[in-house]
């Protein structure tokens, strides 16, 4: 599934191409919002269920870090009935499209020394830390934004397939993708199984975690997400020498094959509470 890009697409912001991923995943590229939304369709229900089980509801003030198109922020308002969601991202063009009451888009750099949007009952970040340097430091920074008794929920990708999987188009493409993204924009998922320990080290209590692995079914949102992600990262994947262009094409075709059997990378979600009681 190829994703076209426009010659009018804006360039990355100077100096950000590696650290923030704009070298590969540029918000202004044609089809990028659709790619993000396909991932949201695969994971949002699981995320919202966990956030509501942790108490997110009326009166809560929430911070959604790396909010993307705002799917989690909007559902927190619509389904959980929270009071406010501050949705922060490096690029808020998708968040500014018809924002509902209670949604506050904030264009900001979470790595900046001055980033301090307030204190929140819930701080949520999904598929963010894996792209940033020093996840332990970032976890501690997010924990510091919690009000007493507030909850930090962090989710990142965990791949249970590629290390032991036999050679086949989809596992080969995943291996090349992780390596290529690491080489180009610094993505690193190797530490993600240790995410609960990072929350505990940040001083949070009642730390726990779960993994959701969506099935790779032809035509499903997650299958479309990976196909579009491989098209976006094709150059980086091929540069690893682990696959060639024909291998990427075969992996995309495999995702749409009724006979395909295999796993998608999953979402490891970990959470913990700040000391104290909510006001």
Automatic annotation (TrEMBL):
Keywords: Methyltransferase, Transferase. InterPro entries: Methyltransf_12 (IPR013217), SAM-dependent_MTases_sf (IPR029063). One of its GO terms (molecular function) is methyltransferase activity. Residues 63-152 form the Methyltransferase type domain. Transmembrane segments: none annotated. Residues 1-32 are annotated as: Disordered. Pfam families: Methyltransf_12. GO terms for biological process: methylation. Gene3D superfamilies: Vaccinia Virus protein VP39. Residues 14-26 have a biased composition (Basic and acidic residues). This is Class I SAM-dependent methyltransferase. It comes from Streptomyces genisteinicus. The lineage of its organism: Bacteria, Bacillati, Actinomycetota, Actinomycetes, Kitasatosporales.
């Amino acid at each position: 599934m190829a994703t076209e890009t426009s010659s009018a697409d804006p360039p990355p912001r100077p100096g950000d191409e590696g650290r923030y991923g704009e070298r590969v995943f540029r918000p202004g590229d044609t089809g990028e919002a659709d790619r993000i939304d396909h991932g949201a369709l695969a994971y949002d229900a699981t995320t919202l269920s966990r956030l509501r089980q942790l108490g997110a509801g009326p009166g809560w003030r929430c911070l959604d870090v790396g909010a993307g198109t705002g799917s989690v922020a909007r559902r927190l308002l619509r389904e959980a009935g929270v009071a406010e969601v501050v949705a922060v991202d490096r690029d808020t063009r998708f968040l500014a499209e018809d924002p509902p009451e209670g949604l506050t888009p904030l264009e900001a750099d979470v790595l900046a020394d001055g980033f301090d949007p307030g204190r929140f009952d819930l701080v949520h970040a999904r598929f963010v830390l894996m792209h940033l340097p020093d996840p332990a430091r970032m976890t501690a920074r997010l924990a510091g934004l919690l009000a007493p008794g507030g909850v930090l929920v962090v989710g990142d990708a965990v791949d249970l397939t590629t290390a032991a999987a036999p050679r086949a188009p989809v596992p080969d493409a995943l291996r090349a993708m992780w390596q290529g993204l690491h080489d180009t924009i610094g993505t690193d998922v190797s530490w993600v199984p240790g995410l609960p320990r990072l929350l505990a080290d940040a001083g949070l209590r009642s730390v726990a975690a779960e993994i959701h692995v969506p099935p790779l079914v032809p035509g499903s949102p997650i299958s479309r997400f990976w196909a579009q992600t491989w098209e976006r990262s094709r150059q980086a994947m091929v540069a690893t020498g682990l696959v060639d262009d024909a291998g990427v094409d075969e992996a995309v075709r495999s995702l749409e094959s009724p006979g395909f059997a295999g796993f998608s990378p999953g979402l490891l979600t970990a959470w913990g509470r700040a000391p104290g009681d909510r006001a």
